[in-house]
Each structure stands twice: as structure tokens, then as C-alpha cells.
Amino acid sequence: KASLIVKASLEEAPINIFINRRKMDIEGVITALANEGVTPHRIKPDKTSLKSDISTAFSKNIDTYMSDLYKANALRLKGVDYLSRYRAFMDGLFTVQDLSSMLVGFLVEYIVRDMPDKEKIRVLDMCSAPGSKAIYVANISERIKVYSRDISEYKRDLIVENIERLDIDNIDVKISDALIHNESDDGRYDIVLLDAPCSGLGVMRRKKDIKYNISNDKIDELISIQKKMLKNAQQYTRFDGYLIYSTCTVNVRENREQVEEFLADYDSYELIYEKQLLTGVDNSDGFFIAVMRRR
């Protein structure tokens, strides 16, 4: 696996997109892109890449469910640059997101299907920029209200730009530091998303400079930041709600070990889904995701 990861990290990263279902279905987007000279490729998901690394009642048959979501929502573009040149992009028919990151939205969709009687579902996206996850989640249902948060005006403006392009109206965007506990948010959310700052070792093919800038000291600092953010995230999650933790790294200390320590500290949480994706092994960037339910 190591040789496959290294080889893939040196290759050019593909452009993956998900469809704005509020405006057009996947067939319509394929036609719109074809009219502009772009031939999108359908995604052929590997169910092994979607199957949870742990066996739980929640994760049973989840690979089949999410495989169907990939087929209906995701496309791959090749030989395309400067997406702003294309009317389909500027008209908000789709947005860019790697297949690994789409997994967060698919998991939320899987969770929400079991909330048919809940009139309003609150989802907090703590580190939201550029807003792709928030947009996918908001696209699932009008019953969902997404609270999109990030640390600076620059990141807030990135989120707002994407929301306005896709014409999504059920996302609330504000500046907020995920390291600072906001007591008014305690127990307020049905689902909390924490895509935490990380070493980025899963996306080196997209960010070539990562390998020159990372160090053990930097990773130690990031692990401390993640732990503090998780502490806040667990307070924001309502009882019987869900906390989804993700990173774009393959470093076990930031991923499985971080989750194990969290579960040891907060015994009201149960791990119900966990997946480590690897560049070159799975059809995606390197990515980790864990779903925990608060009992």
C-alpha cells in the first residue's frame, strides 16, 4: 500500500464535482457540460472504499446506500482548468469536492433518512470553508438548516461566494473560532461536523508543499488543536445526536488514536462508523472519517 500511496501522491489530482440537485439532475449536468465541450466521467465507486472499518448496526449495508449516492451525484472532469470559464459552473449546476469529502455529506444523508418526523434538523459545520460540505448537506432537504462557521472574514467570504453561486438559502454563515467554546450552542445541534485542521498528508498530490512544511512538532500542535475542537463539538451535539469527525490525513495519531482518546474521555459517545481512505488504494484523496452518536 505504501508504494501505491507514494505513486499516487506524485500524480495530478483529478477534479471531482457533485451535482446541485436543486437546479438539475446528473443527466442534465452531463448534457450542459457536453454543450460546452466537456465530457464528464461517471464515478464507479468501489464498495470496499465505502464499507466501514468497524462492524455496527448503523454501518450495515451502508456501502450499497452510499454507492448509489455517488452514482447519482458525482462526476469526474479530466483536462479541465479554470472552471469559471464554463457557464454550467457559474450557473451553480455543480461544485468541486473530492470523493472522500463527499462521504461526509453522504453519511449525513444516511443519518437524516431516519429522521422522517423531525420538522427541522440543525447541522453545525464548525470548520466550514470553502463550504462544499455545508452545501451538500443543505442540498439534502429543506428540513435541514446548516450553521456554517469558520475563523476569518476571508473564509466566510469563500463560503458565501459558493452559496450564492449555487443559490442555496438554508445555510447561515458566521465567523466563529472552533477553539473557543460558545456556551449558547451547547446541545443545540442534531449533527455536528468537525473537519479539523490536520497535517494534510492525504492531499499531498493537491498540495505539493506539505511534505516540506510538516514536522513532528507541527503534528503535536495540530493534535492538541483537534482535541480542543472535539471537546467543544461534543458539547454542541444534542443527546441522541451525531458528531462526525474528519481529516484529510493518513496519520493514525490524528485519526484513529484521536478518536480512541475522545471515546475514553466522553463515554456518552459511541463509535458507529469509521473509515480510513488512502490515496492510490481507494479512488479518492487520503481521508479519515468517524461518526459518533451521543447517547
Written description of the protein model:
- With 295 residues, this protein is α/β, with parallel strands linked by helices.
- Helices cover 37% and strands 22% of the residues.
- The protein has 11 helices and 11 strands.
- Strands 7-6-5-8-9-11-10 form a 7-stranded mixed sheet, sandwiched between helices. The chain has a 4-stranded antiparallel sheet with strand order 2-3-1-4.
- Helix 4 crosses helix 6 and helix 6 packs parallel to helix 7.
- The longest helix is centred in the last third of the chain and has 21 residues.
- The protein is globular, with a radius of gyration of 18 Å.
Please give the alpha-carbon distance between the first and last residues: 37 Å
What is the alpha-carbon Rg in Å? Answer: 18 Å
Instruction: Estimate the strand proportion.
Output: 15-25%
- Uncertain runs are none
Shape: globular
Fraction of helical residues: 25-40%
Give the number of helices.
Answer: 11
In which order are the strands of the major sheet placed? 7-6-5-8-9-11-10
In short:
The protein is an alpha/beta fold. Helix content is 37%, strand content 22%.
Question: Helices, strands, pairings?
Answer:
Blueprint (H helix, E strand, L loop, with lengths): L1 H8 L5 E5 L6 H9 L6 E2 L4 H4 L11 H12 E4 L9 H4 L3 E3 L2 H14 L8 E5 L6 H9 L3 E7 L2 H14 L4 E5 L13 E7 L14 H4 L2 H21 E11 L8 H10 L3 E9 L9 E8 L1
Parallel strand pairs: 5-6, 5-8, 6-7, 8-9
Antiparallel strand pairs: 1-3, 1-4, 2-3, 9-11, 10-11
